[in-house]
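Researcher: Let's run the pair from yesterday's discussion. Sequence first, then tokens, for each.
Model: Starting with the first of the pair.
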Amino acid sequence: LRKQIKKMEVSQHSKYFCEFCGKFAVKRKAVGIWGCKDCGKVKAGGAYTMNTASAVTVRSTIRRLREQTEA
């Protein structure tokens, strides 16, 4: 339990990559709300990480299906 909480706290306090400005400046503002310090963009995400595992899976599936329909 102690190691699980440590993992969550490390991931929620780390900086993430901003897709809009291209810098590692995204930090957690509140539960599920992530904001970039440089460009000011606000993005919804997971509670402890910016991208949840299910969101990454859905995004890759949508991209794969989009590439199949274009080809």
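Model: Moving on to the second of the pair.
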Amino acid sequence: MKICHDINKCIRCGRCIVFFPELFTIKEGVVVLKNAEYSNGRACIEVQLDEQKARMLEKICPTGAIRIER
């Protein structure tokens, strides 16, 4: 499945980093997906997540900046 992150919607609350430090980090004061190439403020990476973790990841983001593509 793919995780997509939109910096333009992100409010930098850090919830994703707390719960998924293996996927997210802070770079130059902005929350970003690790090992992702951003274009126009958006990036997607392919990851292996079980369905429960994927649902949790979608719900912890209060602005919808994180999207899961199955």
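Researcher: Give me one sentence on the second I can quote.
Model: The mean pLDDT is 96.
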